């Protein structure tokens, strides 16, 4: 993970979030792994006299990659091939769904590098696997294989390495065929529920349920059901 690469990812995610033709995003690694995190060679060259405020501001901008995946109205799938560590794991956790190849290996990696973690992993991981398991993974830096990742709820499914791409694309196509307004609303409801009280969640559910009930897509879903045909959703 380099800073220019992360900036490019932010640009691509921003474009995908704004493009009405994009219904789902798949994030995967090029090569033998998903993402091993930051380049330790860059960290080794950091001067102790660095401008902390400037570095924090720049890192916060790079964090938009995780924020966009978590908050964009389109579902995001992480197709995890091979090693997935450090900030790469945080990226995977920012996605809505995680599909892992049998060869996938997960590790937080930060503590062994003398770091505390970034890209939102300390917020997302406890919400995925639970706080006790997240503390174990961050503090003990234990390596987790694909099968164990499935057992602890870190990933949604595990497939053969050669099936990862096709499996991720099938899932993306399933999501892309759904009504976009409903998908976006469900994602917003689930995100809001992570930090809200029950009464507030009910208020938001009521508002979004009524809003989507008056959409063209909702009417199309009802007509398609009655006419026994596949629906054609337009996002309106």
Key features?
236 residues, alpha/beta, Lyase 2-enoyl-coa Hydratase, Chain  A, domain 2, 2 domains, three-stranded mixed sheet, 11% strand, Enoyl-CoA_hydra/iso, Enoyl-CoA hydratase, ClpP/crotonase-like_dom_sf, Enoyl-CoA_hydra_C
In summary, what is this structure?
The chain has 236 residues and is of the alpha/beta class. Helices cover 54% and strands 11% of the residues.
Can you tell me about this structure?
- It contains twelve helices and seven strands.
- By secondary structure, it is α/β, with parallel strands linked by helices.
- It has two domains: 3-176, 2-enoyl-CoA Hydratase, Chain A, domain 1, CATH 3.90.226.10; 180-226, Orthogonal Bundle (Lyase 2-enoyl-coa Hydratase, Chain  A, domain 2), CATH 1.10.12.
- Strands 1-2-4-7 form a four-stranded parallel β-sheet, with helices on both faces.
- It starts with a helix and ends in a 10-residue tail after the last helix.
- The model has no long low-confidence stretch (mean pLDDT 94).
- Pfam families: ECH_1.
- This is Enoyl-CoA hydratase.
């Amino acid at each position: 993970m380099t800073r220019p690469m992360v900036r490019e990812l932010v640009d691509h995610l921003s474009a995908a979030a704004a493009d009405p033709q994009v219904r789902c995003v798949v994030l995967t690694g090029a090569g033998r792994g998903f993402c091993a995190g930051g380049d330790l060679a860059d960290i080794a060259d950091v001067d102790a006299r660095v401008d902390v405020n400037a570095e924090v501001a720049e890192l916060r901008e790079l964090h938009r990659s995780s924020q966009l995946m978590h908050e964009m109205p389109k579902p995001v799938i992480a197709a995890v091939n091979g090693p997935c560590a450090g900030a790469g794991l945080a990226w995977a956790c920012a996605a809505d769904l995680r599909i892992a190849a049998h060869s996938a290996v997960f590790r937080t990696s930060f503590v062994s590098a003398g770091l505390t973690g970034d890209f939102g992993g300390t917020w997302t991981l406890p919400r995925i696997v639970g706080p006790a398991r997240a503390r174990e993974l961050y503090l003990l830096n234990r390596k987790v294989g694909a099968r164990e990742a499935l057992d602890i709820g870190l990933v949604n499914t595990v497939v053969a390495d050669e099936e990862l791409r096709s499996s991720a694309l099938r899932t993306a196509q399933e999501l892309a065929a759904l009504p976009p307004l409903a998908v976006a609303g469900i994602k917003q409801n689930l995100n809001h529920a992570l930090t809200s009280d029950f009464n507030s969640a009910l208020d938001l559910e009521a508002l979004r349920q009524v809003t989507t009930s008056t959409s063209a897509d909702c009417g199309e879903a009802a007509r398609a059901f009655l006419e026994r045909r596949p629906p054609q959703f337009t996002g309106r």
